[in-house]
Amino acid sequence: MVAGPSESDERTRDRVLAAVLERGPVSAVQLGTVLGLTPAAVRRHLDMLSKNGVIEVKLTSHAKTGAGRPARRYVLSKRGQSELGDDYLEIARTALAQLSAVGGAAAVKDFAAARFAGMEQRYLPVVDAAGQDVAERSRALAGALSGDGFVASSATIHGASALSAQQLCQGHCPIQELAAEFPQFCEAETEVFSRLLGVDVRRLSTLAGGGHVCTTHIPTGRIVVRTTKERDTPGPVTEVSNHQQERP
Fold it and tell me: Is the whole-model pTM more than 0.70?
């Protein structure tokens, strides 16, 4: 007869699950440091939680170079969220439904814009530090998003041509279920990305809409670049080519 998990094991597993909820996407090494557990102990509990379907693995590339073997990061699965209770989700859903009933879709849009305002303020210095090259700005944005747990990456498509572009992908969304009912959140986030990058971007897919990842198309060929000052001051902007952007 195989013995079941001890009470101590169950308590430790609950601690690991709580840490994944609080810090995910998080690596096994980070969990071990936070919880004071050995790598072997952490992985044993992670394997059991994965087997039970309450956590899942997100593979992420290096934010700056994208090179090397993808890193494993753990996040709570939908089942895990459900088992831990979704009172917060019901409260938020009810509040937004009431806001929509009173103020209409515009009120929800304003609420969503306010939610992302802090993100935009924090990310702007990071993205601006990357310079005028849109691809570099996109990679800087991906790094900032990953730092906040969105498991983001930016990859080049089409190469060096007028159709060249970056695809910004996000593997995790903390408000996925809310955004499925209130798409204003996805729209507000997309508008923030456009302002941060200084170009018009297009959302190709979202986790909330059933996509595997949130994917944003960012043109880097012949584009319209808007500086921070130009974003704040109405007026004409100048169309420049990718080649012109790279000139000193």
Answer: no
